[in-house]
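Ticket #4471: structure export looks truncated?
Reporter: QA, pipeline team
Priority: medium

Steps to reproduce: submit the single chain below to the structure queue and open the exported record.
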Amino acid sequence: MAGSSRKTPTIRDIARVSGVSATTVSFVLNDTAGQTIPLGTRDRVRSAAQELGYPTTLARALREGTTRTVVVATGGLPRGTALESFLDGLDIELSSRDHSVAVLRATGDALARTIDAISPRAVIDLGAIYAGAESDGLDGGWIDGLASHTLTQAGHLVGFGHSRIAFARPAETVGISAMIGLRERHLRESARALDIAPPATIAMPEDPDAGTDALKAAISRGVTGIAGFDDDSAARVLRAAHSLGIRVPHDLSVIGFDDAGWGQHTTPGLTTVRIEAVDYGRRAARGILGITDPNAPVPHSWVVERGSSSTARS
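Actual output as written to the record:
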């Protein structure tokens, strides 16, 4: 009867009632492998689903894949080399098993409406994962990887004898503030693990004349090594250093992050961290499909040395 009809609850409804992100709800209902979601959070999500009358057939449809599609929501994250190669790996693995990938940059209600319309097998909401990494307990493989790659970056500078380092981030933070916050936290943790002083943070603006003051102040505090949020931020440091007459790498070592490829064309060439994210994508796809592969490659990162870093002066 029309009077007794009731709207079928969605993952978004469960997220609102349980006080977590839609991504967390999807992970819990799908029993997604590799996610360290606290037991209390899982119980809260399942209780909310039961309270709202979320049909078990819908949860099963997510696992079985009514459209054989996996949605990746990038949430406004910058389209860097690591993200693109992650998507490549995901697509390679899923397409080989008759699934497809839909990449969405929408957020909020627009994203939720699209997900409801697609009815995907699973949702990987990268923006939500980064934004809620601490509050939702989502320190999964991608977040662990980001921390380890930051350690690779910091370890390179410390290996050259730099005990006072700084984190260079873009001054413009719209859409990437959560990512910047994570990288700052990971660099502090890396500094602690490497037994050096907590790193300073300098904001490098896009304006070529506006970043010199921040860099000059950092150097006056004894900073001899700069770890960039990304290659663009590191390049801004190179430009500011040139304007100030600071010699790189003789006076200051600089290392980027998430190798954009063009670092070989700067002067000096930009040393950076290369992330093997294809394996992350393939591993994420296998987890979604419930496939265990003990011989799968372990995702890793390494330093691409191009000349902008060297031994600290005594």
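Status: closed, not a bug. The export was complete when the record was re-opened. Leaving a note from the reviewer for reference: Residues 35 and 140 are 5 Å apart (CA to CA).
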